[in-house]
């Protein structure tokens, strides 16, 4: 068997032996041919690469990569903002609330910051995931990160729903001189860069819309056959749905608070403002002009008004009612006893075209 194997090897050797005995000129010709083939191949490859670099697909991919890089930078900045909110305000105020003479209660701290710390932890995880994806560049897979993020975004609903209330509680707490002094010390921290606590509390409000814009831009530069296309479209649709829900909730909450704020300014109160479907439209002052004819005045009279003097009325327009109030010398508002609350459902609007 060994002899047979050796014979087989011997049969394969002559080609190599012939190469060694080959004419030097033939070797030179083959070397030149090899060089020319390599040069032609490299030139063709260079042309292919240059054509691709100038192609619309490559330009789209460059823009897509730039969007992803910008997203990582924006996420890094947002995580830093949340870090400042939690470490320069939330945690110090928690400690202050546990002191012997607390300038703020634990309930107020919870009302102002709500789940800010949870949001920070969530985005720290998301940011680490983004950085890990960038480390594998040029392969960029992002859709699974949004799959992780989406189920946890309900915490944003709570924060957004609570936002106006948190600012209101903070404004009330600032009436306490000790708290106001302490807060100014925290805001003087170099990490805050001259920004107030209200500014940091507002940052999370814009994060969901920012993600939606980023996904719109990503999809604009993602081919239809791309492996991530469907996942990114699903993430965008879910974020848009969440954004609409949060917008509606914020609008409803702000409307209720606005109605209650107006109701509190009226000395007698106003039950119709406790209707949650009653939407505030605008407010302002109107001049009530007295009629010249005494008989006519008695028919259109709204409260006691002198025949010789015009009266300024503070008016509030809602979707269902129109309120007319007088302002006392102390600045308090009083509903007119007669005609102070007009139901717009039963009203007829008459436009007087004649100047007289």
Automatic annotation (TrEMBL):
Entries under InterPro entries matching the protein: DBL_dom_sf, DH_dom, FYVE_RhoGEF_PH, PH-like_dom_sf
Gene Ontology CC annotations of this record: cytoplasm
Pfam families: RhoGEF
Coiled coil region boundaries: none
Database matches in SUPFAM superfamilies: DBL homology domain (DH-domain), PH domain-like
Residue ranges of domain DH in the record: 63-249
Record lineage: Eukaryota, Metazoa, Chordata, Craniata, Vertebrata
One function term, GO molecular function aspect: guanyl-nucleotide exchange factor activity
Protein name as annotated: RGRF2 factor
Residue numbers spanned by region Disordered: 1-22
């Amino acid at each position: 068997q060994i002899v047979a194997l050796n014979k087989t090897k011997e049969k394969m050797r002559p080609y190599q032996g012939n190469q060694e005995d080959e004419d030097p000129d033939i070797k030179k010709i083959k070397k030149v041919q090899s060089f020319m083939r390599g040069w032609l191949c490299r030139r063709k490859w260079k042309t292919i690469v240059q054509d691709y670099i100038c192609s619309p697909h490559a330009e789209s991919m460059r823009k897509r990569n730039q969007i992803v890089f910008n997203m990582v930078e924006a996420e890094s900045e947002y995580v830093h903002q949340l870090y400042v909110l939690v470490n320069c305000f939330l945690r110090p105020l928690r400690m202050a609330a546990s002191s012997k003479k607390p300038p703020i209660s634990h309930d107020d701290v919870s009302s102002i910051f709500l789940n800010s710390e949870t949001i920070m932890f969530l985005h720290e995880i998301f940011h680490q995931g983004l950085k890990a994806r960038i480390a594998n560049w040029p392969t960029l897979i992002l859709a699974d990160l949004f799959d992780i993020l989406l189920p946890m975004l309900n915490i944003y609903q709570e924060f957004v729903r609570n936002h106006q209330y948190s600012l209101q509680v903070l404004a009330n707490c600032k009436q306490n001189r000790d708290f106001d002094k302490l807060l100014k010390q925290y805001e003087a921290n170099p990490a805050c860069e001259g920004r107030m606590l209200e500014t940091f509390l507002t940052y999370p409000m814009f994060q969901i819309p920012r993600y939606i814009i980023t996904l719109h831009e990503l999809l604009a530069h993602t081919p239809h056959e791309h492996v991530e296309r469907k996942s990114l479209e699903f993430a965008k649709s879910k974020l848009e749905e969440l954004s609409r829900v949060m917008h509606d909730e914020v609008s409803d909450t702000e409307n209720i608070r606005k109605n209650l704020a107006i109701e509190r300014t009226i000395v007698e109160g106003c039950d119709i403002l406790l209707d949650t479907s009653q939407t505030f439209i605008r407010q302002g002052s109107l001049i009530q002009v007295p009629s010249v004819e005494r008989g006519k005045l008695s028919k259109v009279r709204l409260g006691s008004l002198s025949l010789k003097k015009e009266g300024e009325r503070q008016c509030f327009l809602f979707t269902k009612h129109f309120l007319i109030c007088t302002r006392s010398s102390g600045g308090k508002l009083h509903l007119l006893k007669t005609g102070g609350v007009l139901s717009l459902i039963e009203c007829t609007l008459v436009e007087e075209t004649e100047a007289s």
